[in-house]
Amino acid sequence: MTDKIKVLMVDDEEQFRATTSRILTRRGYRTTVAASGEEAIAIMEKDPHHVVILDIKMPGMDGHEALTRIKAIRPDAQVIMLTGHGSRESAEESLEHAAFDYLNKPCDIDLLDTRIREAYTAAVKETPRVEKRVRDIMIPVEDYTTLQADATIGEGIARLLESFKSLSATSRIMETGHRSILVFEGQELAGILSIRDLISGLQPAYLSAPKPSMADSMVYSTMFWTGLFTTQAAALRNKRVRDLMSDPPCTVDEDANLMEVAHTLYMEKVRRLVVTSRGKVIGIVREQDLFFELARILLGA
C-alpha cells in the first residue's frame, strides 16, 4: 500500500526534514519535502498529496495557519501535526481545524508510520475514523451499585449480591457484571468498595503486626485457621463502608479515546476508571469493558 501513498514532509529544520524523509522513502512512501508553510501550500496546489506531516513552529507562516490553508484547498488531505513545542491548547486548535493527529517530537518512526497509513485510509475512503469513546462502552452510574459512606458493610454486601443475582438471569451479565460499589458522601464520590477491600477487611490485625525475629518463619496450623473466616466475616457486618472503602478511582472524561483508557489502566495498574462529564460522575469503565470491545473488533463479537 505504501507505494501509493504520497507524503509531504514540512519542517524548517533541514536535518530533521531530510532524515525523516529518507526513512519514509525507504519504507516505500512517495515523499516530498517543504521547508515552510508557504512552500507546502504551493506544492499542494499543484501536486496534491494524501498525507501532510506539518511542523507547527516555523518562520513566516506557522503550522496552524498552514493547516487551515491546506484544508481549504485540499479538504481530503490528511494532516499530521508534528512539533517539538506541543501544548494542550495547540493540540486542541489543531484538531478543531481538522488535523488528523497531533504528535510530539521526537516521534517514534513506527508510530508515525502507523498514523500515516491510517491517515491515508481515511483520505482515500473519504470516511471518518469511527471508534467508540468511553461514553459508548461505560456502565452508566445509575446501572452501577452505589451506596452512601455511612451504610454498613452488611448492606453493601447485600446490594452487591443483589446486582449479581439480577444480572445472572439476563444476557447483560457479560456487559455489566461488576465487583465493586461506588461510595458517595451526599452527591460527591468518596471512594469505592471492591471485593478486594472486603477480603482485606477480613484480615485480623495481628496477622500483619510485626513479629519477633525468631517468629519470622512461623507457620500457622490448620487448627489456627479453623473458624476464623466465619468469625471475621461476622465482625464486618456492622462496620461502616467508609472504614473499608478505597480511594476513588482515577477519572476519565466521557469523550476520551479508548486507547487513552487502556494506557491509563495499564500504567496505573487499576481495573476501573470513573467516567465524568463536566466534573460530574456519570459512569464507570472497567478492564472487561475494553475486553468486550477488543473482542468485537477482532472477532465481530
Biggest sheet character = 5 strands, parallel
Query: What is the 3D form?
Result: elongated
Q: What does the average pLDDT come to?
A: 84
The CATH class of the largest domain is Alpha Beta
| Order of strands, widest sheet | 2-1-3-4-5
End-to-end separation: 28 Å
- What is the assembly state of the chains in this entry? single chain
The count of helical stretches stands at: 15
β-strand amount: 15-25%
Computed over alpha carbons, the radius of gyration is 27 Å
Weakly predicted, low-confidence segments: 167-177
Tell me the number of strands: 12
Question: How many domains, as an integer?
Answer: 2
Structural classification:
alpha/beta
Fraction of residues in helix: 40-55%
Name of the CATH architecture of the largest domain: Roll
H and E string: EHEHEHEHEHHEEHHEEHHHHHEHEEH
CATH superfamily of the largest domain: CBS-domain
What is the CATH topology classification name of the largest domain?
A: CBS-domain
Explain this structure:
It is elongated, with a radius of gyration of 27 Å. It is of the alpha/beta class and 301 residues long. The relative contact order is 0.10. The longest helix is centred in the middle third of the chain and has 17 residues, at 109-125. The strands form three sheets. A five-stranded parallel β-sheet has the order 2-1-3-4-5, sandwiched between helices. Strand 4 (78-83), helix 4 and strand 5 (101-104) form a beta-alpha-beta unit. It has two domains: 2-125, Rossmann fold (3-Layer(aba) Sandwich), CATH 3.40.50; 135-202 and 238-299, CBS-domain, CATH 3.10.580. Helices cover 46% and strands 20% of the residues.
